């Protein structure tokens, strides 16, 4: 079994190709769209969900079977057909062109696998069993939903906004680090959970930064 390197790929505006039009392909397409990828689907038929995405111009659809050369210009590809010989051909072409490829029913054939994912705004939690038990990974990810609730999306937006302001306004590294540590100790997450949090406007942010620079 491969020892995988966990990474986060930036697929924004990159061509990502999904070969296949079934339910598994649809799940891969949704993940790619969440990453702002340019998605091309190659398949004679599509699920209703994929047809709707095509109708809304969210994906490009080439309505035919895979043909050698279809991966040209791609950044990443999913081989998601129900025919092993086709998936193998897709994998071979991807390897020959240096394109990242995942074979959905054979984790060892490609050069990357997709973990189970939980998203809370800027927070992304992933769980992988390195292909040994995808359903186990999905179950663990489901358990994490309760521990990392919707409040984390608001919390991280709050942190991002103030961190951005600190980095723009404070040039001294020691003061900046002090502010970031104090920001982390605020009980904003608890306030979000119990419904007592009040949004910080620009004036309050600037005031907090000014009043928390001293040791």
Automatic annotation (TrEMBL):
It is an enzyme of class 1 (oxidoreductase). GO terms for molecular function: ferrochelatase activity; precorrin-2 dehydrogenase activity. Pfam families: NAD_binding_7. It comes from the Bacteria. This is precorrin-2 dehydrogenase. Coiled coil: none annotated. It catalyses: precorrin-2 + NAD(+) = sirohydrochlorin + NADH + 2 H(+). The keyword NAD applies. Its EC number is 1.3.1.76. The lineage of its organism: Bacteria, Bacillati, Bacillota, Bacilli, Bacillales. Keywords: NAD, Oxidoreductase, Porphyrin biosynthesis. One of its GO terms (biological process) is siroheme biosynthetic process. Pathway: Porphyrin-containing compound metabolism; siroheme biosynthesis; sirohydrochlorin from precorrin-2: step 1/1.
């Amino acid at each position: 079994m491969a020892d995988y390197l966990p990474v986060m790929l930036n697929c924004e505006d990159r061509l990502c190709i999904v070969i296949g039009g079934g339910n598994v392909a649809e799940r891969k397409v949704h993940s790619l769209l969440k990453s702002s990828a340019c998605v091309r689907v190659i398949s004679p038929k599509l699920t209703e969900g994929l047809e709707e995405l095509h109708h809304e111009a969210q994906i490009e659809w080439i309505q035919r079977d895979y043909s050698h050369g279809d991966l040209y210009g791609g950044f990443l590809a999913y081989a998601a057909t129900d025919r092993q010989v086709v998936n193998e051909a897709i994998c071979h072409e991807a390897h020959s062109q240096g394109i990242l490829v995942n074979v959905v029913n054979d984790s060892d054939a490609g050069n990357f696998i997709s973990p189970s994912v939980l998203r809370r705004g800027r927070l992304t939690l992933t769980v992988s069993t390195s292909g040994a038990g995808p359903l186990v990974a999905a179950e663990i990810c489901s358990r994490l939903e309760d521990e990392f609730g919707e409040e984390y999306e608001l919390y991280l937006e709050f942190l991002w906004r103030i961190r951005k302001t600190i980095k723009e306004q404070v040039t001294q590294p020691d003061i900046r680090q002090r502010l970031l540590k104090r920001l982390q100790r605020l009980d904003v997450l608890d306030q979000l959970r119990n419904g007592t949090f009040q949004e910080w406007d620009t004036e309050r942010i600037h005031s907090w930064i000014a009043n928390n620079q001293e040791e």
